[in-house]
Specification:
Elements: H1 12-22, H2 30-36, H3 48-64, H4 124-131, H5 140-144, E1 150-153, E2 168-183, E3 187-196, E4 199-206, H6 211-214, E5 220-230, E6 233-237, E7 240-244, H7 246-251, E8 254-257, H8 266-280, H9 290-295, H10 301-309, H11 314-345, H12 356-365, H13 372-384, E9 392-397, H14 403-416, E10 420-424, H15 428-442, H16 455-459, E11 464-466, E12 475-480, H17 486-497, E13 503-506, E14 520-525, H18 533-541, E15 547-552, H19 558-562, E16 569-573, E17 584-588, H20 593-605, E18 609-613, H21 621-639, E19 645-648, H22 654-665, E20 671-674, E21 687-692, H23 700-708, E22 718-722, H24 728-739, H25 743-759, H26 762-765, H27 778-794, H28 804-821
Parallel strand pairs: 4-6, 9-15, 9-16, 10-13, 10-14, 12-13, 14-15, 17-22, 18-20, 18-21, 19-20, 21-22
Antiparallel strand pairs: 1-8, 2-3, 2-5, 3-4, 5-6, 5-7, 11-12
Helix pairs in contact: 8-10, 10-11, 11-27, 11-28, 13-14, 23-25
Length: 822
């Protein structure tokens, strides 16, 4: 014999243990005695010389036929403090789960809405810890809704002999020995040997001597943790312990793992949740009507609560989650569909129309021909506004896809029908840009129009009067922004109020107090990145029930279109005007930054302009501004010494920002250094280079919008994506930018990688947070939307007996959101 531990799979000790167990060898049998004296780490841990001695000992024991060996096996490692007396399987306990902190059967007074302290064993300390969970748990119901984040799957555990180094794994075995040990002077811990039929493994809990009190010899445990190497042998360090008995093993092969908080053990959570489930799961009332549940194959609530906490199978766990996800999204969809119904219910919107010859006149007056997508969008919009149901449409299209013309068509329809139209932009400079655009689109004598100069003085009256041949009368148009002089502002306001002006272009000033429309028929909100529920509501207050068109350059994935934007109809401009080459996009590694700068310089020498976007600084706007100032100074001093640089950041006053943008537009600045917080939505066709620092920190959608700024002419645009230390994942993400020009694809990718919270802060979006459901699950969202629509059609107030519970939940959920948003 060579004692190389190669003869028996799983090690000699494993073999012997199996032998002892299978043959019912009593604990006084010499074999057992020898095995009890087993060294930590098992047979395999021994040096061949020690192995030989061990085997000799073993043989002697067997030969003695029950006689006790006088000389016990010398242990190579530290002695095990409590030498084993017995090696027997624990007796079956009546309770199915060993982890229950109180062995008592649950007999609990209280309701699901009682505080958790009604559960036996929940003291102040536990209560405080529960309150620290996210979201906090204070009532039994909240505890029942504290769902596992995952499950340990004991059906997929490995025999000890098949464990692999370096992986997280779960083993189930018997505690063979356990002791607290001092390893050197200061390192204390618990050391145990766990065995199953295939072998043994040494387990260390560093610094956790209390583990020794938890584990008992002969106890069956499941350990989950990483397997490391110790002197070339496998060992587990600080694994999570699951105390099991046979029943647990057979009845609970999926053990829940809960989101926890400091000092709150899984065992504790599991125990109390188990108690709560046992006592209360069947006392939960079912909010979903039977037919709805049947139609959508949803588990009943009691069963779902039980299956989510201790599932019989992965499928059951999934089905339980599906039920809760469905419920969650249903409440959201009810709110969304209701919001939509309310917006449209008042009716009473003016009927607006653009007669065919006027439309033709408008289209023919344009300096370009419309894209197919633009024509279709105009059809959609004109269709919407042609009846009394107020339009709530979202027009989305990449930067440069030509949304303004669509808005113009809608606005002249309003004017043609004798109503006023308004368009609201997020910044003064954008409002100004729109004003100029509209004047040039609508004015047949545009060459003479005083668009560049101070239009106000030119008009004298607060508005310009444009000769527009296809319109029945001249079109009167005004610009209302915060920077008008008080006297000018009141002149414009008067003209709006007494109906002298037909089209008003403006900023938020438009929805401020003091602005009253004589007969507002249509409001357009441009560059709407956020939900803007509030703004829309305010606009609506401005006069009866106008039609509303919201425009955005943010591509909205289908799932969000059904939820976050679910109360809007959506039209997509999925076609760029011809002759706009795609922006050539390149990732730039740090060591080639200089080359990118040289490229920028070269383009500027050729007469072009460039944007440089500073990295996103999460901490605060002021730190971000500071970083931008530093970058601007560095670039001016060290890199682009002879070029004219401008700086734009969120800490600048809005007047300052507009001045900088104006200088850039008028080519008094070559390179605009800007933070991401600043909307650079202004049209500067001469800008053809976009350099984005810290590109890996931005969402793909956002990067796509940035680069859209250099795709506004026939000139080839260039976009450089720089990142200091990109991770392989972000490299991969950025690589998509090089090849993909499809905003929707990028948005979906964003949503997949970063989640909706990143994509649209739920706070701004006016959406409740989701706990179970995923905003990426199109089918689920569609199904819940259908149910929501059906429910509200049958019972708009949700007042029927079997809808009352749903109504209550919806009210509760949305009142929380509304109070946060406003
Ligand atoms: P955005 O969708 O970003 O608001 P704009 O409406 O500002 O886009 O249009 C971008 C530019 O494209 C403008 O200069 C506009 O005159 C021009 N444009 C719009 N539609 C067309 C078209 N069908 N053909 C050519 N150029 C167009
Ligand atoms: Mg625009």
């Amino acid at each position: 014999m060579k004692f190389t531990d190669s003869a028996v799979i799983g090690g000699l000790d494993g073999y012997l243990l199996r032998f002892v167990e299978d043959n019912g060898v009593g604990h006084t049998h010499p074999l057992s005695r020898v095995l009890q004296a087993f060294p930590p780490g098992g047979y395999r841990a021994l040096h061949p010389v020690q192995r030989k001695r061990f085997v000799d000992e073993l043989l002697r024991a067997v030969e003695n036929g029950g006689g006790l060996s006088e000389t016990p096996v010398k242990r190579p490692a530290k002695p095990i403090r409590e030498p084993a007396k017995v090696l027997e399987m624990p007796k079956r306990k009546p309770a199915a789960v060993a982890v229950k902190p109180s062995g008592e059967p649950a007999r609990i007074l209280g309701t699901v809405d009682s505080p958790v302290s009604v559960l036996k064993g929940v003291n102040r300390g536990i209560e405080e810890k529960f309150a620290k969970l996210n979201p906090p748990v204070r009532t039994v119901r909240q505890l029942l809704y504290h769902f596992p984040s995952r499950y340990h799957d004991y059906s997929e555990m490995r025999p000890i002999a098949q464990l692999e180094f370096g992986e997280e794994q779960t083993v189930v075995g018997t505690v063979f020995s356990v002791s607290t040990n001092a390893f050197g002077r200061y390192r204390k811990g618990t050391e145990a040997v766990i065995s199953d039929k295939s072998g043994t493994i040494r387990v260390m809990w560093w610094g956790q001597t209390y583990v020794a009190r938890r584990l008992k010899q002969g106890q069956k445990v499941a350990l989950s943790g990483k397997v490391s190497a110790f002197r070339n042998r496998m060992q587990m360090e600080n694994p999570e312990i699951e105390e099991l008995d046979e029943d647990t093993m057979s009845s609970r092969r999926l053990v829940p793992v809960y989101p926890s908080t400091e000092g709150l053990f899984q065992k504790t959570l599991r125990g109390f949740i188990k108690d709560a489930v046992d006592a209360f799961a069947d006392r939960l009332s079912e909010p979903l009507p039977d037919d709805l549940r049947k139609r959508n194959k949803l588990m009943a609530i009691g069963q779902a609560v039980r299956q989510v906490h201790s599932p019989e199978s992965h499928e059951k766990a999934e089905a339980a989650r599906h039920r809760f996800g469905f419920e969650e999204l249903l409440y959201i969809e009810i709110g969304v569909v209701r919001r939509r119904n309310e917006a449209q219910s008042g009716g009473g919107a003016p009927v607006l129309a653009l007669p065919a010859d006027a439309r033709k006149g408008f289209v023919e007056s344009l300096p370009f021909s419309l894209t197919g997508a633009q024509s279709r969008a105009i059809d959609d919009v004109l269709g919407d506004i042609s009846d009394e149901t107020p339009m709530t449409r979202l027009l989305e299209g990449d930067v440069g896809s030509g949304k303004t013309v669509v808005a113009a068509a809608a606005l002249i329809a309003a004017v043609h029908s004798g109503f006023q139209g308004a368009i609201m932009a997020p910044t003064e400079i954008l409002a100004e840009q729109h004003f100029r655009t509209f004047v040039s689109l609508l004015d047949s004598k545009k060459d003479e129009a005083p668009v560049e100069g101070p239009w106000f003085q030119a008009s004298g009256s607060g508005y310009l009067v444009l000769e527009t041949p296809y319109m029945p009368q001249p079109v009167r148009i005004a610009l209302l922004t915060g920077s008008l002089k008080a006297s000018e502002k009141s002149a414009v306001q008067d003209a709006i109020a007494n109906g002298e002006v037909d089209i008003v272009v403006g900023t938020h000033a438009l929805v401020q107090q003091g602005v009253e429309f004589a007969r507002l028929g249509l409001a357009v909100i441009d560059e709407q990145h956020r939900f803007g529920v509030e703004q829309r509501a305010k606009l609506r207050e401005k006069g009866g029930s106008p039609h509303v068109l919201v425009m955005t350059a943010t591509p909205i994935p289908r799932t969000l279109a059904l939820t976050v934007y679910g109360d809007l109809d959506i039209t997509v401009l999925n076609e760029m005007p011809p002759g706009r080459p795609k922006v050539k996009t390149f990732r730039v590694l740090p060591y080639r930054r200089q080359e990118a700068f040289e490229f920028v310089e070269k383009k500027v020498q050729e007469g072009r302009q460039a944007f440089i976007i500073c990295p996103l600084v999460e901490e605060s706007e002021s730190i971000e501004a500071k970083a931008a100032v530093t970058e601007y100074e560095r670039l001016s001093r060290d890199v682009f010494l002879h070029l004219r640089l401008g700086l734009l950041h969120g800490r600048m006053a809005s007047g300052e920002k507009d001045d900088v943008m104006r200088s850039f537009r008028d080519h008094e600045i070559d390179i605009l250094v800007s933070t991401a917080v600043v909307e650079v939505g202004v049209d500067v066709p001469n800008a053809t280079v976009m350099l984005i620092e810290g590109a890996d920190r931005f969402g793909l959608s956002q990067l796509h919008q940035f680069r859209g700024r250099v795709r506004r002419s026939q000139e080839q645009g260039f976009c450089f994506l720089l990142s200091e230390n990109p991770s392989p994942e972000s490299e991969e993400r950025l690589a998509i930018m090089e090849t993909t020009d499809d905003g929707f694809e990028l948005a979906e990718e964003d949503l997949r990688i970063r989640g909706p919270g990143e994509y649209f802060g739920t706070r701004q979006s006016g959406m409740p947070d989701l706990r179970v459901a995923q905003l990426t699950d199109v089918e689920l969202i569609q199904a819940t939307r259908e149910e929501a629509t059906r429910l509200l059609r049958e019972d708009p107030e949700l007042s029927a007996a079997d809808h009352a519970a749903i109504g209550e939940r919806v009210r509760e959920l949305w009142s929380r959101v509304t109070s946060e948003v406003s």
